[in-house]
Amino acid sequence: EDGYELWLRYRPLPATARAQLQDSAAAIVTLAPDSPTVRAARAELQRGLAGLLGRTPATPAAAIAATRLAAGSVVLARAADLPPSFAGQARLRALGPEGYLVQRTRLRDADVILIAANADTGLLYGSFAWLRALQTGTGAADRDLARIELASSPALPRRILDHWDNLDRTVERGYAGESIWNWWELPDVIDPRTTDYARANASLGINGAVLNNVNAKAAVLSAPFIAKAAAVAGVLRPYGMRVYLSVRWSTPLELGATKTADPLDPAVAAWWRAKADELYAAIPDFGGFLVKANSEGQPGPQDYGRNHAEGANMLARALAPHGGIVMWRAFVYNPASHPSQNNDRAAQAYEQFKPLDGSFDANVIVQVKNGPIDFQPREPVHPLFGAMPATPLMMEFQITKEYLGFATHLAYLGPLFEEALRFDTRAGGAAAPALTVAQVLEGGHDVAKVGGIAGVANIGSSRNWSGSDFDQANWYAFGRLAWDPLGDSRAIAREWAAQTWSTDARVTEPVTALMMRSREAVVDYMTPLGLHHIMGTGHHHGPAPWIDDLERPDWNPVYYHRAGRDGIGFERGAAGSKAVFQYAPEVARRFADPATTPSELLLWFHHLPWDYRMPSGRTLWQELVAHYDRGVAEAAALQAGWERVRPLVDARRGGDVAQRLARQHADAVWWRDACLAYFQHVSGLALPPGTRAPAHPLEYYQALRFPFAPGHG
Ligand code: BDP
């Protein structure tokens, strides 16, 4: 076991389960006409059943013409391949182009397991879903694996992984080795790993990949790179995945093809139209562009006095004739350049984008990070969700754990994703029913405004793909929630654990429990009570709340925590930046008052005195210390919990996890000690009685340097 197989290990089922299934899954019969996608589905069923049952199923040829089916067949059929009298036809129709139905049924005089869909991709998704159900025992009537019933379709049409992969194969914020795209050898040599990547994504229903970093290079749109991207697209296509590219705003200017990159310049628009034609000639199902513009030094339409909509629409018009989309990022912030601009970074994206609601073309989706700052261990939901009813929005999560301990720490992100997706924006008004972020992504009440979901991938060429075994779960959870944004993160963790570690409940239950407490542990030892962005400069791994000398004010941790003698926290209420009022009135009211702000977001929204009384009865200072202590205790508990599971799993992966958990515990102590030493220093407060003093003086932590931390070029 080296983690390469991810959650698609297909190890033998327990004997009773095998016995249930043996006779009802003896052959795989395809009624759907042959296609690369149908072949992929059949191959996966063969591989899966061979592993689970220890016996390779037969795959009789020419089944389409056969009038009779053998009992014990697993049948792959599209709606069109089934008789109109098939009882599930109406249900199937309602499942749309990507949905699937799995049921035990009688077909052509035989008792079979039917995997049905409207299109080939649905057959592939249904095959993976059935194999998952076999391994996790879900959906089985009377716990009989031969009687699994499933019916599902995705809530969102675009479920995309964003790779921050550079053309030199380094990966921005990547902690899992170099990029899986071997640009040097492509298109002549295609790594077989690309197929396994596509299988893993198809098993979750992820249907798109942005191949390159949002901090894009012009070269990605050169003819040689288009040919390379086309080769990757060819491998992903049978698995229902489309390829997208991140593009640099100034590409035509940099390539010397135009004299400007002004979106309203006809020559610029013509260049992009011709480029789109060239792309679609090479990749007929090319998905479109992802754009980071006027953000962190990247060029954009504002360089020419144009706004984001003018920029996005110009690109959208080049792609529209081919059915492509523009995913335009709302990750923008700038130190105030004029008095009317809010100095609070958390307020700036809303300020720039909200006024543009309704002015984007239909094939533009605005891509918004889950929170208003930057992928922190905990953030409130971004205020743009619910605030742009006339614009399709796309959620951007970060699967790679830039701010949560890289691949070194165990932090299962399912609960973080779930917290954001289920947040009720109240954007419909006080009298209206809930409008969760998940519903906003689905278009609110306007299906024409359906957006999507994207996750910044944590994938690299390390043998186990994600750098650590547990980080595979974050890829998995992202995919499952992209399919069903109201999915339950605990159920997803259990599913993943059963497929990845063991179906033995003595493993799945404790592993699920460890996963479910891991993210809160990280919040506690890094940034409790709503603190944010106090990580070390550049790498963002360790603590550095003292940093105050970076070029831009909003890059300094002191800007975010504002700790001093008088207290701690960023005031975003009426007396401060007023960013709370970007939320719907009901939410704004809740966050504007410290007494009604959830304590886990308290210092995000409020600057409060150290002796502020918390609901627990403790002072704010005592509460902060208690959270840091709890974070360390939780890190120790993760370690101890794993030691109990470890004898039940394979030695290689078990040992790797143990090493990471030991480092995580040490890092948690480091975080706690460094932060408490610093906050004591600025507050002048003594530690509460009985509290362990930091192991070293503040200067020790301030002197630590990490020149070789990964992921930041
Ligand atoms: C930040 C990362 C930076 C990315 C940026 C982005 O530190 O590397 O380029 O997000 O999302 O979190 O564009």
From TrEMBL:
Example GO molecular function: alpha-glucuronidase activity
All residue ranges annotated as the Glycosyl hydrolase family 67 C-terminal domain in the record: 467-689
Matches recorded under Gene3D superfamilies: Alpha-glucuronidase, C-terminal domain, Chitobiase/beta-hexosaminidase domain 2-like, Glycosidases
Positions of the Glycosyl hydrolase family 67 catalytic domain: 143-465
Pfam families: Glyco_hydro_67C (PF07477), Glyco_hydro_67M (PF07488), Glyco_hydro_67N (PF03648)
Statement: the UniProt record of this protein carries the keyword Hydrolase: yes
Classification via SUPFAM superfamilies: (Trans)glycosidases, beta-N-acetylhexosaminidase-like domain
InterPro entries per UniProt: A-glucoronidase_C_sf, GH, Glyco_hydro_67_aGlcAse, Glyco_hydro_67_aGlcAse_N, Glyco_hydro_67_C, Glyco_hydro_67_cat, Hex-like_dom2
Keywords attached to this entry: Carbohydrate metabolism, Glycosidase, Hydrolase, Polysaccharide degradation, Xylan degradation
Catalytic site positions: E296 (proton donor), D374 (proton acceptor), E402 (proton acceptor)
Segments forming domain Alpha glucuronidase N-terminal: 6-130
Gene Ontology biological process terms from the UniProt entry: xylan catabolic process
Keyword Glycoprotein annotated: no
EC code(s) of this entry: 3.2.1.131
A cellular component term, taken from the record's GO annotations: extracellular region
Catalysed reaction equations from the record: Hydrolysis of (1->2)-alpha-D-(4-O-methyl)glucuronosyl links in the main chain of hardwood xylans
Family under the similarity heading: Belongs to the glycosyl hydrolase 67 family.
Name recorded for this polypeptide: Xylan alpha-1,2-glucuronidase
Originating species: Massilia forsythiae
